[in-house]
Amino acid sequence: MPSVANAGADQQILLNQNTNLAGNVPIVGSGVWSVTTGNGVINNNSNPLSLITNLTIGENIFMWTIKNGTCPNSFDEVTILVNGLEIPTGFSPNDDGNNDLFVIPGLDQMNNTVEIFNRWGIIIFSSNNYQNDWS
Predict the structure, then answer these.
(1) How far apart are CA 7 and CA 5, in angstroms?
(2) Average pLDDT of the residues of the chain
C-alpha cells in the first residue's frame, strides 16, 4: 500500500501572491499534484513542496495523490483561498465615525499606486505604495 497522503493545511493568501504546497513525502510510492477546482500553475507536480503560482480569486483546491503500483491510491486535498481586494467606491472623512478612514484590506501587502479624485475629476490625493494610512 502507498503511504497515507497528507496535502497539508489549508491556506489563505492575497491576490497575486504565490505559495508552496505542503504535501507529505511518500515513504512508499510516489506522489503527484493535480488541480481539482480553480486554477494554479504547479512548478513541479511530483514535488510535495512545489511552488504554485497564477492562483485565481476564490477557492483553489489541489489533490496530492500517492500511488504504488496496482494498490489503491491514497489522496488528500488542500484548499488555497485567494482573497481579492475590496476597494471602496467612496468614503467620507468628516469625523462622524462612519467611513472616515480609507482602508483597502490587503493593499499594504503589495506594490500599488492610489489616486483619489473628487466628484469633478480633480486629483485630491496620490500615493505610491499606499499603506492604508490616510484619515
Answers:
(1) 6
(2) 90
